[in-house]
Amino acid sequence: MPERTPETHVIDFRAAERLLAARDPRGAVKLLDSVIAAHPENTAARLLRARAFFAAAQLRPAELEFELVLEREPDNAFAHFALARTFQRSGRSEAAVRHFRLAAALDPNPEYLRAARFDPGA
């Protein structure tokens, strides 16, 4: 296997984004595993891997990654929203509501507001 460099990690990250967009979340996770092994502090790679886990219906790994992102970036509205969706799919509605509300409080995105039931038109 060729030596991994920062440049190849960037290439893998971008390829993982494309794989996720092409609905190949498992392929994205495979590429991101090596990126995260080399750069465990990279929050963007962890967030992308969390999204890939979610898309692959691997809810527990998705939950753990979203929580790690939120430990590092507690004001990341998208991570709160995505964690809430993960809890929702896991049947944990009480935990989901809490994170939907945090997402909406951090960012008045209409989708977040609707999910948190803050939207008067909902």
What does this structure look like?
This protein is an all-alpha fold. It has two domains: 1-58, no CATH class; 74-122, no CATH class. It is 75% helix and 0% strand. It has seven helices and no strands. It has helices at 6-21, 25-38, 43-55, 59-72, 77-89, 93-106, 110-116. Helix 3 runs antiparallel to helix 4 (59-72). The radius of gyration is 15 Å and the shape is elongated. The N and C termini lie far apart (53 Å). The relative contact order is 0.09. The model has no long low-confidence stretch (mean pLDDT 94). It holds the Pfam family TPR_2. It comes from Streptomyces sp. 900116325. Keywords: Repeat, TPR repeat. InterPro entries: TPR-like_helical_dom_sf, TPR_2, TPR_rpt. TPR repeats lie at residues 77-110.
Proportion of residues in extended strands: under 5%
**In the residues, how many domains can be counted?**
2
Give the class from helix and strand content and strand pairing: mainly alpha
Write the element-wise H/E pattern from the N-terminal end onward: HHHHHHH
Q: Compute the number of strand runs.
A: 0
Oligomer: single chain
Compute the CA-based radius of gyration.
15 Å
Helical content stands at: over 70%
- Termini distance? 53 Å
Mean pLDDT: 94
In short:
With 122 residues, the protein is mostly helical.
Topology (SSEs and partners):
Elements lengths: L5 H16 L3 H14 L4 H13 L3 H14 L4 H13 L3 H14 L3 H7 L6
Helix pairs in contact: 1-2, 1-3, 2-3, 3-4, 4-5, 5-6, 6-7
What are the defining features of this structure?
single chain, 122 residues, mainly alpha, 2 domains, 7 helices
